[in-house]
Amino acid sequence: MEAVCIEPSARNSGLHILDRWKFCPGLENPADKLTRGENTHTLLSDSVWWRGPVWLRGNRNQWPRQKFERVTDEQKLERLNTSVHAILPQTEMILHENKFSNLRKLLRVTAWVKRFVAKLRKRLARVER
After folding, report:
1. For the chain, N or C: smaller number of CB within 10 Å?
2. Which of 93, 118, 95 is nearest to 108 (CA)?
3. d(CA 67, CA 111)
4. Is pLDDT at 119 greater than 90 in this prediction?
């Protein structure tokens, strides 16, 4: 099982929040279904969406357990110092938004350019056949 980190503010709130939290594995969590790309038509007939996982209706002693870990200040610093590097393709700006006096003009010109490019692509496709 994965460990969940609880921030000190939640731990020390006096509400004993960890005693009330229960673990639901991600694949069985109905709240995660939409984030995994389920569509609404599928959810209409999905019993987990409407009633929750089967084990939820059973004895609480049989529910999945989750181990909670305390987050130390060092772990927080380690997380803050982690960086992500990505290589993005360089694109050339065709329209510069600061060259337009208002949003309506920018949108109108953008639409015109998109139609123009679509027509060129269509013409190019005909020539390549």
Report:
1. C
2. 95
3. 53
4. yes
